Amino acid sequence: MKRSQLLLGLALAAMIAAPAAARDQIRIVGSSTVYPFSTTVAEQFGRTRGFKTPVVESTGTGGGIKLFCGGVGDQTPDIANASRRMKDTELAACQAAGVREIVEVKIGYDGIVIANSTKAKPIALKKQHIFLALAKQVPVGGKLVANPYQRWSDIDESLPAIKIEVLGPPPTSGTRDAFVELAMEGGAKAFPMLAELKAKDEDGFKAVAHAIREDGAYIEAGENDNLIVQKLAANPNAFGVFGYSFLEENTDKVRGNTVDGVAPSFDAVSDGSYGISRALFFYVKKAHVGKVPGLKEFIGAFLSDAAASEDGYLADKGLIPLADEERVAVRKSAVALTVFALK
User: Is 338 helix (H, G, I), strand (E, B) or coil?
Assistant: First the structure.
């Protein structure tokens, strides 16, 4: 064997035997709602903290948590953004895959809006209107039947006589989860028949309240909320379901309609008077802290006064901040890498 061939063979063998280089850049996946906040912090972090700018992907809450829970190591994400709290089943899947220590970080609040184009007339919605417009089955004459409503005016004469056409997130989205829990369940409970079902059979009630119709009235528009905004701007008769932060960034194109008499606003979401509001989170893989540079520092940066306070740069992006006292407590717990457990 020639000396050059021998050297090449030894070099290849060394490359194969050597462990892969540790990743030097934070990888973040998850919620499309949290994505713009996370991206903004990542960019600031890369510019000012001496670490590489984290890579942020918008995969949806469910999809992001699934990737996060895939295991421990360089091939798996360090952080999962979430527009709802992690579920029991997701935590169990994480633990089964070896992701046993997870740090929960609550970053603020967001509202879910029912928006339409600024070129169209605003409408005054109630939660029961939303349920009747989008549920797969609705109560009629004391029985559950396939949703017969085709126009908004079929539900209530005060609503416009236009086709029900709502663009919204898919089942993998935390926004979808929060929407069916807060808006659809809230609307379903307004009907005595379904309120009685809830009292007797919680699972049966949720099966009805969470089932979205599949006849074209509700259109799954993917995880890209900006795409929904663009489609609403092009179609004044359509409505869209997405986070308040996207409304804040697109008030020239779309408006958020009132729900139960309350308009979506910073103050209404913050004080809870707007009835379709939820907390936002991200989850950190503790096993990656100390191995992926900057992970602990990123947590502190996200919850810093400069980013997440009422006067922070994330408020300009539409994040409804935690109260100062709560934010300080969350930051202290998160930077200490306190492992969370579902209550």
Answer: coil
- Give 289's contacts (C-beta < 8 A, 6+ positions apart): 295, 296, 337
SS3 55: strand
> What single-letter amino acid sits at 22?
A
Tens digit of each residue's pLDDT (9 = 90 or more) over 248-265: 889 999 999 999 999 999
What residue has token string 């990123």?
298
C-beta separation of 103 from 331 below 8 A: no
Model pLDDT for residues 47-100, shown as the tens digit of each residue: 999 999 999 999 999 999 999 999 999 999 999 999 999 999 999 999 999 999
Alpha helices of the chain — where are they, by DSSP H? 3-17, 35-48, 61-68, 88-96, 127-134, 152-155, 174-179, 185-188, 192-200, 202-210, 225-234, 244-249, 266-270, 295-302, 305-308, 324-335
* pTM of full prediction above 0.90: no
